Amino acid sequence: MNDLDTLVQAAQQAFADAPTPAELENAKARFLGKAGQLTELMKGLARLSVDEKKSRGAAINVAKQQVEAALQARRDALAAGELQAQLRAEALDVTLPGRRRGTGGLHPVSRTMMRIEAIFASMGFDVADGPEIETDWYSFTALNNPENHPARSMQDTFYVDMKDAEGRWLNLRPHTSPMQVRYARAHAARHAGRQPMPEVRVIAPGRTYRVDSDATHSPMFHQCEGLWIGENVSFKDLKVVFSDFLRQFFETDELDVRFRPSYFPFTEPSAEIDIAFASGPLKGRWLEVAGSGQVHPNVVRNFGLDPETHIGFAFGMGPDRLTMLRYGVNDLRLFFDGDLRFLSQFK
Ligand code: PHE
């Protein structure tokens, strides 16, 4: 091996051993710098003859090119390594799932309420809202349910030991029926003297309260009242409207609807409304979904209307029960426990 080969090898080794660009540049100086080994060899050419200069010069040039090539290769390698290190340090795992904002969902009973409202709105019913803290008069008396009458216990409630400004006892409304009276009275007052008076057609959904608690009863539950009063509204209309509603709500015509005679102080005649599905797990079983009836003349009078000219029907249904039937939920309390494992299934 001649001196040039040895030099080239030494340079290659030195470059390869340089761990950083700065150390590589130091190594370069040892071979290619002003006082570097190759530079010194070039200077030595001056002492040679013309022929010797030619061959020795060419050989030195080849060696210089090899050293420069080795230098460039190492520079590239170090730069690439630095880039890799930087990329590794700044690595971002784009496959990690991002932190998602939890999306909320509607409560299943809210969904039911919205369905009920949409279906009745399509049949020309207004939607009204009313107070959950009621007076004795609206909850019972105005609904033909006199003070101390035993029928009051049908809708037994939480009484508040407090009276309103007019001295009427307060309670948490045990049903949405007070809204019949509130809405119809406001309607009658608004349209006083108009002949004929526009019909009262309204539903009133909302929270209601009773002293009851088990798998199918909760102290707080929901009801949706319905009222249609006009000059010629009959029990037949109740049957048509409610049956039509149920078929739309459950999205099936394969539904039996039964009006079973019953008693409420504020309707006469009165009926419980039962349904039976033609298929599914509840097939053929009669299930109660609402109370209903033709509004009692005393109640029509409390609306501020004449029962001789105004007649109609009312119903009160249980949206919680409808939700249980629609989604196949068997415990009412699940709706009110606030357990997201249950609720998020309805998103
Ligand atoms: N308010 C009755 C109840 O709570 C239901 C009902 C409403 C019955 C309207 C007849 C008419 O059970």
CATH superfamily of the largest domain: Bira Bifunctional Protein, Domain 2
CATH-assigned fold name of the largest domain:
BirA Bifunctional Protein, domain 2
Query: Main β-sheet, in a few words?
Result: 7 strands, mixed
Return the domain count.
2
CATH C-level category of the largest domain: Alpha Beta
Kindly report how far apart the N and C termini lie: 81 Å
Question: Could you say what the CATH architecture of the largest domain is?
Answer: 2-Layer Sandwich
Residue share in helix: 40-55%
Any key phrases for this structure?
347 residues, alpha+beta, BirA Bifunctional Protein, domain 2, 7-stranded mixed β-sheet, 3-stranded antiparallel β-sheet, 41% helix, binds phenylalanine
